[in-house]
TrEMBL record:
GO terms for molecular function: nucleoside diphosphate kinase activity. InterPro entries: NDK-like_dom, NDK-like_dom_sf. It comes from Pan troglodytes. Its EC number is 2.7.4.6. This is nucleoside-diphosphate kinase. Its cofactor is Mg(2+). Belongs to the NDK family. It is an enzyme of class 2 (transferase). Keywords: Kinase, Transferase. Residues 15-44 form the Nucleoside diphosphate kinase-like domain.
């Protein structure tokens, strides 16, 4: 039923994954390696300025 009303919700077109690195991972300088592992799995990083487009300056 919902597939006809909300096709994007069923295809996963708007799904996002939140990645958080704990302070010890930052301290150990593992952020780059963690991001690389996610990218190897097919995850893509969003455009950093994408969140600023709708923000008031």
């Amino acid at each position: 039923i919902f597939a006809n009303l909300f096709p994007a919700a069923c295809t996963g077109a708007h799904e996002r994954t939140f990645l958080a690195v704990k302070p010890d991972g930052v301290q150990r300088r593992l952020v780059g390696e963690i991001v690389r592992r996610f990218e190897r799995k097919g995850f893509k990083r969003p455009d950093p300025s994408a969140g600023l487009r709708g923000a008031a300056a």
